[in-house]
Write a structure and sequence with these properties.
Number of strands: 0
Strand content: under 5%
Helix content: 55-70%
Number of domains: 2
Distance between the termini: 85 Å
Length: 187
């Protein structure tokens, strides 16, 4: 039918130019795409859960005017003050909070801690219940079919020696990427 004397790689390039990439290329991209979408949806959910802790943290920061040493008598140890300071990067927000003369630093701290503990409960429940199938199914398919599809495309019978199977994602990776808040203890 065709009188074309070219290599398979040239043929694959022509297919790619017309938007008809071989299956192994989309199979190779699918795990990373699935992971990025999964992380994005987890980040969105986490930000939703952090809405009130961020607000209460802003109230607390406003109450002490950025002088975290004012909280030393309210927390169990100096390390707990450092924990509060370390939360600044994750919990700082653009919301402006007026100073409340009737609120004590202790009550602002307790209110923040209540919302922080609620966040930790909500986030723990989310991580334990979220399905990992949307990330692991593309990895499983990649591990099972990528070598075969690539071999078919290039006319290879033997599997590649440098192929590395992708590990399945587990909840520990979520905990590493999105940990609970490290909250201080009250005195």
């Amino acid at each position: 039918m065709f009188e074309y004397e070219g290599s398979r790689s040239e043929f694959l390039k022509i297919l790619a130019e017309f938007g008809e990439e071989p299956a192994f290329i989309s199979r190779g991209l699918a795990p990373q795409t699935a992971w990025e979408q999964f992380v994005s949806s987890c980040r969105t959910q986490r930000e939703e859960f952090l809405k009130w802790p961020k607000r209460h943290y802003a109230v607390l920061a406003s109450q002490i005017a950025g002088d975290w040493k004012k909280l030393e008598r309210n927390v169990a140890s100096p390390e707990d003050v450092e924990k509060l300071m370390n939360l600044h990067e994750e919990l700082s927000s653009n919301c402006t909070v007026p100073f409340d003369f009737f609120r004590t630093t202790g009550s602002a701290l307790r209110q923040f801690l209540r919302s922080g503990h609620q966040f930790n409960r909500n986030w723990t429940g989310f991580v334990h219940s979220v399905s990992l199938d949307c990330v692991n199914n593309p990895r499983r398919d990649y591990n099972q079919f990528y070598e075969v599809e690539k071999g078919c495309a290039f006319g290879r019978v033997t599997p590649e020696a440098d192929f590395v199977a992708l590990p399945m994602v587990n909840r520990n990776e979520l905990w590493e990427k999105f940990p609970c808040l490290d909250l201080p203890k009250l005195a």
